[in-house]
Amino acid sequence: MPKKASILVPKVPGKIGQVDWKEDFTLISKNGEILVFNIFLFTLPFSEKKYCKLALDKKQDTVINSLIYAFQYVEGIPKDIWFDNMLTIVDVAKMGKHDRINDKIKQFAKDMGFNPIPCRPRRPKSKGSVEAFAKLCDRLLAYNHEFETIEDLEKIVKTFNENINNEVSQSHNRIVNEVYTYEKEYLLPLPNNKIFSSYLSNRQTRKVTKDSMISYKNNKYSVPVKYIGFDLNVIEKDKSLYIYDNTNLIRCHQISNNPLNYNKEDVKDILASDLLRDSTEEKIEIFITENLSQYDKLL
Which of 4, 20, 74, 241 falls between 20 and 30 A from 189, CA-CA? Predict the structure, then answer.
């Protein structure tokens, strides 16, 4: 049986970008909460310039938003972008066919100006740069028990991203940002902000903690107890925070600087689930009234 060999493709500045996920990454907060998340990965193999972003889901809108942030970060767009066989990118019904990129991604690529290329399954060499990037992310394990909120973790990932771009790459034995300064001149220009805005979604995802709260900008906002453990969508608009379960609005809070922000119905719900679980609704109301001075600060 003849042996297989791979052709080595020369790295051309501005030519190729690679995209993948670091999936199901697990870290533990200072409070002992286990957080499982994904990291979106984008790299330019010529310079090894890297961009990564924490993500709580791998939906198509998340991929598109993350790509836009990556383009803004590197201040340009490579001519070809290689994707792993993500279900958000590849049309399963067309697996095995030459043109199997799904229609929404195809239109997005056209608007951005790049050529989307799906990698062949079980061919890690075709995306070796981003595979090496995924291994680098294991350094984040050093931050176990070093963060409290998802915002803290986002800052850690951002700092990690800056640091690795100021390191010497084994690929070319030079500092990444030095080579990137040269490659940047060969990237395609960014489209106008109107095109970006047509794709960007201001939806973010937050996991409901055991205290029936979600974290947003370092403060906490309550939701009904039944959503504990759920990933909910949050949108900030007109100084209000709208919290959705998919498309269903479940709570609206005024954005505030208070560390804890409770809706009264959620307070009753939380008390009924634990401290006053055997009490009637009337007794819970009396309890809240008797402790009103404390709850006023929360409500």
Answer: 20
